[in-house]
Design a protein that fits this description.
By secondary structure, the protein is of the alpha+beta class. The protein has 4 domains: 225 residues, no CATH class; 94 residues, Immunoglobulins (Immunoglobulin-like); 78 residues, Macroglobulin (MG2) domain (Immunoglobulin-like, Sandwich), CATH 2.60.40.1930; 116 residues, Immunoglobulin-like (Sandwich). Helices cover 29% and strands 32% of the residues. It contains 8 helices and 30 strands. The strands form 8 sheets. Strands 23, 25, 26, 28, 29 and 30 form a 6-stranded mixed sheet that branches. Helix 3 runs antiparallel to helix 5 and helix 3 runs antiparallel to helix 7. The longest helix has 38 residues. About 1% of the residues have low confidence.
């Protein structure tokens, strides 16, 4: 019979459970709620798979005991296994009833369809509800909360009672499943948590979506304990036969993100140390470790389902092994799902990228973690990698927009689209002697210089700082007296030497910026075209 230890998938689910609890302590965001909902769904699938395996284990024992002539020692183990199966089934179903009841209580309805939000993939409408969770499972001597704790405690006590009857269980350790804070290995040294009881620890200030994940986790732990006991009950030990083998494979997860590693094993049930199989996956040999083929490949995406954002994939495998003096051949298929990785892009530009400018972007794919090794391509412009992983600089040339393709180690992960927009015109700062020119009252004619400086749009400067540099290349200044032009001078910068025009009280200087250029990130100069009214200034002079 198979071992009762947790599968790699169950270990991963347990790790996700702890991580999400930590995130929940920091913030209750919609993203955390959705991850808890995904976790509960994974836990429920794992629970169903564990239930099926345990039922099959007991069924196999029934058949084996009959085949071995119903020996008393085997019958005793079978009787204990069947009683354990009944108690496990009763407790798991009780927890399922509590789960459904708390969902109804928080939702104020007993109609399952009214408890979920179809627009959020089936997430509970009251996913963030905390107070009603506490009312139902924790506060005021909750009947259901007590039933949960008592059921978990009684089950563990029953398992420890079996240890006295069956020597093969003597070294098994069945820790309590409903620890109070003072006994919990995680919280017993935490001054804020060690004084809490089991129900407070698990359901105080706990959103509905996290509470039902806790209940699903308890169901899985109960089933894992059952599996541990069942795997220890060997029957028919006097006669060991090996006359049937079947091909099997195991994936650590049936759902993987495109670009990540899909890991698992291919093997035959009924292993014999003298029989070493030859195994291939899609025609290529796999490594054999103690009779088991171990494989690893990079999952690739495809035509994702528009609703689930997943695509089903298969890979053919072949097993060849010596058996009863000849060679036995097996063919099978790996079946798994590839989840579309979510591409996250952050940019200084809020709604669109700036045309003909270097737009720095950070392009991340969180699902890939350390395996993320990106390369990019761009339609409607050009793109180059930045200094760090995921950094990119996009130079749009198409006014209609750009599309950025993302790859990781040769695997296409998808693309993101951006609109584009023209660079906004700058404003101007006009000063004399370090202070703004007084256009309303006028200036005295003893001022020396007037300095004009182009100021970039704040949003543009934040998004593309290396492209937001302006230079005044040419200005015309004219001295106006009584409506007539007395003198005209040109300047090759934004510094107007007032003394060159020799203004008197009652006169004015008319200044027009004839050429303004923007210095790009590559050092090129692009002339900026602006309306006349925004680049003309009149300064009056007073006594």
């Amino acid at each position: 019979m198979a071992g009762g230890k947790e599968t790699p998938r169950q270990k991963l689910i347990g790790l996700m459970y702890l991580v999400l609890l930590a995130l929940l302590a920091l913030q209750v965001s919609d993203t955390v709620m959705e991850r808890f909902f995904f976790l509960e769904s994974s836990l429920i699938r794992a629970k169903d798979e564990s239930t099926t395996r345990n039922i099959n284990r007991v069924g196999a024992m029934v058949k084996k005991v009959a085949e071995m002539g119903n020996k008393p020692v085997d019958v005793a183990k079978l009787t204990a296994a069947q009683e354990l199966r009944a108690k496990t089934k009763q407790l798991v179903e009780k927890i399922a009833e509590i789960r459904q009841s708390v969902i109804f209580y928080c939702s104020g309805t007993k109609n399952e369809k009214e408890t979920i939000d179809p627009e959020k993939g089936g997430l509970y409408i009251q996913a963030k509800e905390e107070q009603k969770v506490a009312e139902y499972l924790e506060l005021n001597g909750s009947k259901e909360g007590k039933a949960l704790k008592n059921g978990l405690d009684e089950y563990v006590n029953y398992l420890n009672g079996l240890k006295a009857k069956f020597p093969e269980l003597a070294n098994k350790k069945f820790e309590m499943l409903a620890f109070d804070g003072k006994d919990d290995p995680i919280f017993k040294n935490n001054p804020e948590q060690k004084g809490k009881n089991f129900l407070e620890l698990n359901f105080h200030h706990t959103p509905l979506v996290a509470a039902v994940a806790v209940l699903a986790d308890k169901q899985n732990k109960v089933l894992n304990y059952e599996a541990d006991v069942l795997s220890s009950f060997s029957v028919g030990e006097e006669v060991i036969t090996f006359d049937e083998v079947v091909p099997m494979y195991s994936l650590e997860s049936r759902i993987v993100a495109a670009g990540t590693k899909a890991k698992g094993k291919i093997f035959v049930a009924g292993k014999d140390s003298k029989l070493i199989p030859t195994i291939s996956l899609t025609g290529a040999p796999v490594k054999i470790v103690e009779g088991v083929g171990e494989f690893e490949f990079t999952a690739s995406g495809g035509a994702y389902d528009p609703e689930t954002r997943r695509v089903k994939q298969t890979k053919a495998f072949h097993i060849s092994m010596p058996f009863k003096g000849s060679t036995k051949e097996f063919d099978g298929k790996l079946e798994y799902e590839v989840a579309e990785p979510q591409i996250e892009v952050s940019s200084g530009a809020v709604s669109a990228l700036y045309l003909e400018c270097n737009n720095p972007l950070k392009i991340k794919v969180p699902a890939l973690g350390a395996e993320y090794n990106p390369s990019f391509n761009c339609s409607g412009g050009s793109i180059k990698k930045g200094a760090s992983i995921g950094d990119a600089i996009v130079y749009p040339t198409n006014p209609a927009g750009v599309e950025i393709g993302v790859n990781s180690d040769g695997t296409n992960l998808g693309s993101v689209k951006f609109k584009t927009k023209a660079v906004p015109n700058p404003s101007f700062e006009v000063k004399t002697g370090g202070r703004p020119v007084d256009f309303l009252k006028g200036e005295r004619n003893n001022i020396i210089n007037v300095t004009i400086k182009a100021i970039p749009d704040a949003g543009f400067a934040a998004a593309c700082p290396d492209d937001a540099v302006y230079q005044i290349a040419s200005c015309e200044a004219a001295l106006i007296v009584g409506g007539g032009v007395r003198k005209t001078t040109r300047f090759t910068s934004g510094v107007i030497r007032v003394g060159d025009l020799n203004p008197n009280p009652g006169s004015r200087i008319f200044i027009k910026i004839e050429k303004l250029v923007r210095i790009t990130a590559t050092g090129d100069q692009k002339e900026v075209k602006m309306p006349d009214q925004s680049r003309i200034f009149n300064i009056s002079f007073i006594e």
